[in-house]
């Protein structure tokens, strides 16, 4: 059970709202059937959520069917600024917490079949950061936002100043040929 602020003891409606929010987000994040397709242009199509994901975390580029370079860690404010720039230019954006959690869980399940997906969820011992930022902010807490652990696919609330990796996503518009 997550830590509940003592303030909630005196505010039963807030406590119930917080618990319902946790239950809804964990239900949404568990409803993925794992249908991912790596496309030719370094994009991953998520059939279940009807989303396209950049195959490489921010800081890397897609070349010769792999990500080249190193993942760049950004704090949440920088990730959101980047997301807003990308949205205005290309419709790429920072995913919500349920979208990101669903995607990483699907990548983890497909990693047993396709080694490519292992890259997205693999972290080296002691590697920092080991999470991806979402666009989802906290319930009334202005200092944090939700991130998803790469290796466990669990959601955690991080201070916005904490460096994290960034994956961009956008809505599926058309059928794209598979790799």
Automatic annotation (TrEMBL):
Residues 1-31 form the signal peptide. Residues 42-169 form the Lcl C-terminal domain. Keywords: Signal. It comes from the Bacteria. InterPro entries: Lcl_C. The keyword Signal applies. This is Lcl C-terminal domain-containing protein. It comes from Thiosulfativibrio zosterae.
């Amino acid at each position: 059970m997550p830590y509940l602020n003592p303030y909630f003891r005196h505010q039963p409606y807030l406590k119930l709202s917080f618990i319902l929010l946790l239950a809804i987000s964990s239900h949404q994040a568990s409803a993925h059937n794992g249908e991912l397709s790596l496309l030719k242009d370094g994009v991953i199509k998520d059939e279940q959520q009807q989303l396209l994901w950049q195959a490489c975390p921010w800081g890397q580029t897609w070349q010769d069917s792999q990500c080249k370079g190193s993942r760049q860690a950004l704090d949440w404010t920088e990730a959101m600024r980047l997301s807003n720039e990308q949205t205005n230019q290309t419709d790429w954006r920072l995913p919500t917490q349920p979208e990101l959690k669903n995607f990483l869980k699907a990548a983890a399940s497909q990693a047993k079949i396709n080694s490519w997906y292992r890259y997205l969820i693999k972290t080296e011992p002691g590697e920092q950061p080991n999470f991806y930022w979402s666009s989802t902010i906290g319930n009334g807490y202005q200092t944090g936002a939700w991130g998803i652990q790469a290796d466990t696919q669990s959601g955690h609330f991080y201070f916005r100043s904490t460096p994290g990796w960034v994956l961009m996503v956008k809505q599926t518009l058309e059928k794209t040929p598979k790799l």
